[in-house]
Amino acid sequence: xxxxxxxxxxxxxxxTLEVQGHHAAFFDGxxxxxxxxxxxxxxxxxxxxxxxxxxxxxxxxxAADETVDEARAASAAFLGAQGPETISFGQNMTTLNxxxxxxxxxxxxxxxxxxxxxxxxxxxVAPWLSLEERGVVVRSCPVRLEDCTLDMDAMRxxxxxxxxxxxxxxxSNAVGTVNDxxxxxxxxxxxxxxxxVDAVHFAPHALIDVTALSCDFLLCxxxxxxxxxxxxxxxxPGALDELPTDRVRPQDPSPPTRIETGTLNHAALAGxxxxxxxxxxxxxxxxxxQRISTAFAEIYPYEHRLARxxxxxxxxxxxLTLYGPPVGDALRAPTIxxxxxxxxxxxxxxxxxxxxxxxxxxxxxxxxxxxxLGLSDKGxxxxxxxxxxxxxxEVDRLLAAxxxxxx
Length: 407
Ligand SMILES: Cc1ncc(COP(=O)(O)O)c(C=O)c1O
Fold this sequence. Notes:
17 strands
């Protein structure tokens, strides 16, 4: 069955929103996606019949245990992980990444090196920079500004005998570049360094397979793929076992709880399971993993078609500059950044917002990239994000509105 956007949209009540007589079109997904009714219901049901703390000897507590277990199992299927014990949860990606960097940092010596990149969201930089106070040296792989791709020769050269950890994004939340993380993981492992992948921006758009990647850690955030605000951390079996994480003394020190602090947001975890099922329902197959995998085989090309139409339409507008790799055949997130000459991105976003076209402006915390592009004091860029609930008509509406502004 080919992907049916109308059917997919029907699950999301918020898509009926109107703004000043205009249908809202949600191109703001990279900042957080809309949520289907099933996710809202799952959280409501948790509070209605499953609400308790975990590990008690009574029905609601057992149900809370189940809720957590189901979310770990669904997340493991979502990421292609070896099992539910590889999945830890937290408040969001940033908080989990600080917990990870603190733990990894305790195993490092002054002079040890951590590699990040100039393409990152700061949530994948600041946690590693905080290790500089321990004498750890943080190096950053440069970006080729002409198409916002990583300079892989520079990355190859940066990874050396002093490298202990590489923190790399899977996809840029600002310009959509997908990095060849597979190659970087190979180089890092050959140098005996561990690798964490920030997959927050990649996860909503294409299939992740942590086993095939053989990364040590991977992080993502459910509110970017139709779920609630919960961060997910995958740790390769064994990777978390010895890490000196922050924890309270009675806490189970084995993975996945080894890096979890305090009581999790159980209701939100029920929502994470429902969000993953929303994606899986697009696909087919006997197992949850198969359904997720076949779902992305539909979602990715659909979003790519939307992005290609927008890219090609924008490329024809004089006085408009596009950033990032062209939308062609290469793997890419369907996220498009642009600027209109003489128009502040904030003003462009406001004018589009007034017509019910929701887009973001600014740097989206991809501060180094925007600085290197020379746009930090110019309001950054306008960012349009695709989602499976976006219609081609909405892309055309957006294009027409941008053309009007660029005139
Ligand atoms: C690529 C990327 N990494 C990390 C983050 C931070 O995620 P969280 O809000 O879950 O901390 C974001 C959020 O926008 C992001 O886009």
